[in-house]
Amino acid sequence: MRNKLLFAQLNAGSLVLYTIPDIQLGVGDSEFSKGLKLYEKGAVKKISDSFSGFRAIVSGTHEYHVGVSTEAYDRGICDCYVGQKDELCKHMIALAIAVVYKYRPKDTEPIKHPVDQAVCSGIVRDATENELDKAKSEINKGMSFLKRFSGPSSKWFQYQSSLVKGSRIILLALSNLPVCEKSVIIIINTLKCLDRKACGGVDDSDGTVGDLLFKIILVLNMFVDFNPNIKTFIKKKLPKGEVFDWESGFYFKDENVKDSGIIN
Ligand SMILES: [Zn+2]
Question: Considering the chain, what percentage of its residues have pLDDT values greater than 70?
């Protein structure tokens, strides 16, 4: 047992359970870029590790004493104003980023586009089986974060962050899909599933799921931008939502242009 513990202590870095994309998806574009900026300018100093986590000094306006767990980038401490309110601050994010660079250098490849915005791959071709399976598995992973709220009110913020994280995972999976009919079917099934979730007790008071649906419709609009021929297919497949009105969000730019007689 003693040897086992010693081994774990020596390899605290190998116990880091998060990667740079995990942090990005968890905290979003704005907070991630603040943390990354601190890390890149060398503000994270004197990293030391123990069995359960890491400690460091992070310099900002002052020098802060910061700690972060090996298991979760959002579990930590910091003596700055935000950290003292028990909220995730940019110093903890900077330390989490530094820890991944130090102990999991192979997992530092960031997600290349914003995680809080609708993005389209812009690749017009059929999706491979592998791409479709990967997308479905990521969507399922994201969906698992969109649960019914059952906790005490003290868990409300944690619950909302989990909705946001799940939404980012789903949006990322859809953003990576090539523009084709198979991808459209996956996207529409995702819309249907989200609609059921909204009916089935996800507490969307902050509008996170509604916002995700809006962004997914934007992805479909971008599909049409990259391949106008896919418009009819999307229109045929797009059902009426129980909770959300999807059709009003799916506009057909070129039809409008033709109607107004500006072009051709
Ligand atoms: Zn802090």
Answer: 86
Q: Is 7 exposed, middle or buried (0-12, 13-18, 19+ CB in 10 A)?
A: exposed
Q: Are 219 and 187 in contact (CB under 8 A)?
A: yes
- Measure 109 CA to ligand 1 centroid, in angstroms: 25
Distance CA 159, CA 162 (A): 5
Residues by chain with Cβ below 5 Å of ion ligand 1: 78, 80, 83, 89, 91
Phi-psi domain of 118 (left: phi exceeds 0; alpha: psi -120 through 50; beta: other): beta
pTM metric for this prediction: 0.83
Q: Where are the domains of the chain?
A: 2-107, 129-260
Give the least confident one: 70-74, 147-151, 239-243, 254-258.
254-258
Give how far Cα 171 sits from Cα of 3, 24, 70, Å.
44, 13, 27
Spatial separation of the C-alpha atoms in residues 167 and 206, rounded to whole Å: 13
Where is average pLDDT lowest: 12-26, 47-61, 235-249? 235-249
CA of 65 to the centre of ligand 1 (A): 8
**Checking phi first, is residue 42 left (phi over 0); if not, alpha (psi -120 to 50) or beta?**
left
First to last CA, the chain: 79
Ligand 1 mean position, distance from CA 122 (Å): 39
Q: Is 49 left (phi over 0), alpha (psi -120 to 50) or beta?
A: beta
Tell me the CA–centroid distance for residue 186 and ligand 1, in Å.
Answer: 40
Nearest to 250 by CA among 264, 262, 225: 225
pLDDT in tens, 48-85: 987 779 999 999 889 999 999 999 999 999 999 999 99
Residue 108 CA to ligand 1 center (angstroms) comes to: 22
